[in-house]
Design a protein that fits this description.
Structural class: alpha/beta
Strand content: 25-35%
Number of helices: 7
Number of domains: 2
Order of helices and strands: EHEHEHEHEHEEEEEHEEEEEH
Shape: elongated
Distance between the termini: 32 Å
Helix content: 25-40%
CATH architecture of the largest domain: 3-Layer(aba) Sandwich
Number of strands: 15
CATH class of the largest domain: Alpha Beta
CATH topology of the largest domain: Rossmann fold
Radius of gyration: 21 Å
CATH superfamily of the largest domain: Response regulator
């Protein structure tokens, strides 16, 4: 999932940009979300430090804070080297600072041109999404399925386990950040990759994200604390895989 961040100290401008983004995501049914919309750059830094993400950032250059938008962009680069950064400013003459701070920008949006802002924001979302999907497909294995009218794409490394849903013929995918329900069969999933193991009639677990197994209760605790279960017939082989 591509995560989007807005840092803008003008409340109306922040709300306007956030609405443009959320409306476009909803209309196009994109697999992305607004993670943070704030006037505090420290909140964004704290988030990117704590989460392994590839984001799209809309940053006001002239923040009423000790950090300017360009300094914030430089700090983001330390943690998200492939993220797409867009500067929103009334001071086009300050864009040279992005070269001084070595911050590669996807675009510069001038606030004064109100009629153009929405289109430019949408264009940036399209471009960032294309880059994100291209980068992910080149470097990491991904699980892709259709859920409703959305195409959901998730890295194998983020998937914890799959379980059968109470709804007929449906499966729930548990990742480190979300749950997604879709039509499918566990048998097909366990055959996708060696990291997926059928540990129970109702569960397929990603063995690379297992933190602990309680042999008495047959509870499997994942890296994020979530729990799924193994049946006795699968326990021996599961323990062998983890040795």
């Amino acid at each position: 999932m591509l995560e989007i961040f807005i840092c803008e100290d003008d409340k109306k401008q922040k709300e306007r940009i956030t609405k443009y983004i959320k409306d476009y995501i909803m209309i196009e049914e994109l697999d992305m979300r607004v993670a943070l919309s704030t006037d505090n750059p420290d909140e964004i830094i704290e988030y990117v430090q704590s989460n392994n993400i590839n984001g799209l950032y809309f940053l006001d250059v002239d923040l009423k804070h000790e950090k300017s938008g360009i300094v914030l962009g430089a700090e983001i680069r330390k943690y998200d080297s492939r993220g797409s950064i867009v500067f929103v400013t009334t001071h086009s003459e300050l864009t040279y600072l992005t070269f001084l701070y070595k911050v590669e920008a996807l675009d510069y949006i001038i606030k004064d041109d109100f009629t153009d802002i929405q289109k430019r924001v949408i264009d940036c979302i399209k471009t960032a999404n294309e880059r994100y999907m291209s980068n992910q497909n080149e470097t990491k294995k991904r699980f892709q399925i259709k859920s409703g009218d959305k195409v959901i794409s998730e890295e194998y490394s983020n998937i914890l386990f799959f379980e059968t849903s109470p709804k007929l013929h449906k499966i729930v995918m548990h990742t480190d950040q979300r749950q997604v329900e879709f039509y499918g069969k566990l048998k097909e999933i366990e055959e996708l990759d060696d990291c997926f193991y059928r540990c129970h009639n109702s569960f397929v677990v990603n063995i690379e994200n297992i933190a602990n197994i309680d042999k008495k209760t047959r509870e499997i605790t994942m890296e994020n604390g979530e729990v799924c279960f193994a049946s006795s017939r699968y326990m021996k082989e599961l323990n062998n895989l983890l040795k």
